[in-house]
Specification:
By secondary structure, the protein is of the alpha+beta class. 52% of the residues lie in helices and 17% in strands. The chain has a 5-stranded mixed sheet, sandwiched between helices. Strands 1-2-3 form a 3-stranded antiparallel sheet. The chain has a two-stranded antiparallel ribbon with strand order 6-7. β9 (284-289), α10 (293-302) and β10 form a beta-alpha-beta unit. α5 (132-143) crosses α6, α6 (149-173) packs across α17 (428-442) and α13 packs antiparallel against α14. The longest helix has 30 residues, at 25-54. The two termini are 26 Å apart. The structure holds zinc ion (ZN). Residues 59, 61-62, 64, 93, 95-96 line the site of zinc ion.
């Protein structure tokens, strides 16, 4: 019987035979990995064959026995240790009316993909981090696997499509009371008196809609690059927000939503995410955003009883702009004028109302300002009045709630870092799939695509 010590001896002898002994540790590690690769591949091949043989000929979709069974159909799959070949049976389901390989489904393999589930996972994960060309090099370095950039890209797209399907299922659940109950049932038990914070924003992604035709289109006077809105939101509980030693806030656990499929889709996705994080158990729901009208329409529609809050930074920015319009941008007069208002906004109960009243008084001293300044006054008064019930910043501080939507802004820049990289070859449809894949990963639901990733080993 071979014991571990014998195996270690054998591996050592192999490395020695390669003449790879007197090297730095990085090279030693690589040598051990290389000489054991074929052994591991063989073991995996045997295990895979055994699992394929054990699999009965039931239809993976409906469970019915398959007819017209053909045995010993060969297949080769690329695994982390190299190509693995096995044979399995193939049959026809009279009920579903399709041909299938039950063993492939049981093994977690897909019809057209040449990769093992772990290799599929590596492709998906690496493509989220970098464009496929770079990812291909990184995979080679880290695992010794040679996966071409095009395979990586194709595989990541396929996983993205799977992520999209899962997302669509979630969206559909929000349409019925039963579905909502299913989503709410996935939520953990929330601590008593929980506050759920929802932050919403949007950013732009620039895409080429017409690959290879740029020059022709430019000559024809058409713009080949377009900007698309990516609607983004994040959901977390107030008790999941902590402060680092440096004083920077961190959120230990939170949900993400990112989509370019329009506001209706965002609404459903966000509702689904909030439900799964305990929306129905939360005592207080808080929605934060900037001044964009669509944010507040969405909040009123979807989170009817939520407290709404305008991002403090945006509110202040508007006051600064007005100060500049009235007294000159960057002038000491502008600053002297705006300072008390900024203080009122943050420190007074109903501070926003005081600011509005005071600016209204100012507006009445008509002859003090020219037409342009009057316009600026009217514009900013309209803005402040529109949002007056969303500026309870004193109350926010008292209750330990955020006054700003910093969390969503950092979320947007995280997504942007990946999606604005040059040299990627994502199409319009591919982008949405990649967004769905990235979001699934961020939301801690990776195991839904890669069940093996849930095991701790
Ligand atoms: Zn069937």
């Amino acid at each position: 019987m071979v014991v571990e010590a014998d195996m270690a001896e054998w591996i050592y002898a192999q490395v020695e035979a390669l003449g790879a002994v007197d090297q730095d540790m990085g090279r030693l590690e690589k040598a051990v990995d290389a000489v054991t690769r074929e052994v591991r591949r063989r073991v995996l091949e045997r295990l895979t064959q055994a699992a394929a043989t054990r699999e009965e000929f039931g239809c993976p979709t409906c469970g019915e026995m398959l007819s017209v069974v053909r045995h010993r159909q060969g297949r080769t799959v690329e695994s982390g240790f190299g190509p693995v070949r096995f044979e399995r049976s193939y049959g026809f389901c009279p009920h579903c009316g399709h041909y299938c390989f039950p063993a492939d489904v049981a093994l977690g393999l897909h019809e057209r993909a040449q990769s093992s589930p772990r290799v599929q996972e590596v492709c998906a994960l690496m493509t989220l981090q970098a464009p496929a060309g770079q990812a291909s090099e990184d995979v080679q370095r880290l695992t010794g696997l040679t996966i071409s950039a095009s395979t990586l890209h194709r595989e990541a797209c396929r996983q993205g499509e799977r992520a999209l399907k899962l997302r669509q299922k979630q969206e559909q659940l929000t349409a019925t009371a039963d579905g909502v109950a299913v989503l709410a049932g996935r939520a953990p038990r929330l601590p008593q008196h929980s506050t759920m914070v929802i932050e919403i924003d949007a950013w732009n992604i620039r895409e080429r809609d017409h690959w290879g035709q740029t020059e022709a289109r430019r000559k024809a006077g058409e713009e080949s690059e377009r900007w698309h809105w990516v609607y983004t939101a994040t959901v977390f509980r107030l008790d999941q927000r902590a402060t680092k030693q440096s004083g920077r806030p961190v959120i230990t656990d939170r949900g993400y939503v990112a989509t370019r499929q329009g506001l209706e889709s965002l609404k459903r996705q966000l509702y689904a995410e909030a439900l799964q994080r305990g929306l129905l158990q939360a005592e207080t729901v808080l929605v934060l955003g900037d001044g964009a009208v669509w944010i507040w329409n969405l909040a009123a529609d979807t989170f009817e009883h939520a407290t709404q809050r305008l991002d403090l930074f945006h509110a202040k920015e508007h006051l600064w702009t007005l100060a500049g319009d009235l007294y000159g941008r960057g002038s000491p007069e502008a600053e002297a004028w705006v300072r008390p208002y900024l203080r009122w906004l943050e420190q007074r109960k109903d501070g926003a109302l005081d600011v509005i009243r005071s600016i209204e008084d100012l507006q009445r001293t008509l002859n003090a300002f020219d037409e342009k300044q009057q316009k600026a006054l009217a514009r900013e008064l309209a803005y402040l009045t529109e949002h007056k019930d969303r500026m309870d910043y004193k109350q926010a501080r008292k209750q330990g709630q955020p006054s700003g939507s910093g969390a969503i802004e950092s979320t947007c820049s995280q997504y942007q870092r990946r999606f604005k990289l040059t040299g990627q070859f994502w199409s319009l449809a591919g982008d949405e799939a990649l967004l769905a894949l990235d979001t699934l990963h961020r939301n801690g639901r990776w195991h839904l695509l890669f069940p093996h990733s849930a095991d701790r080993s």
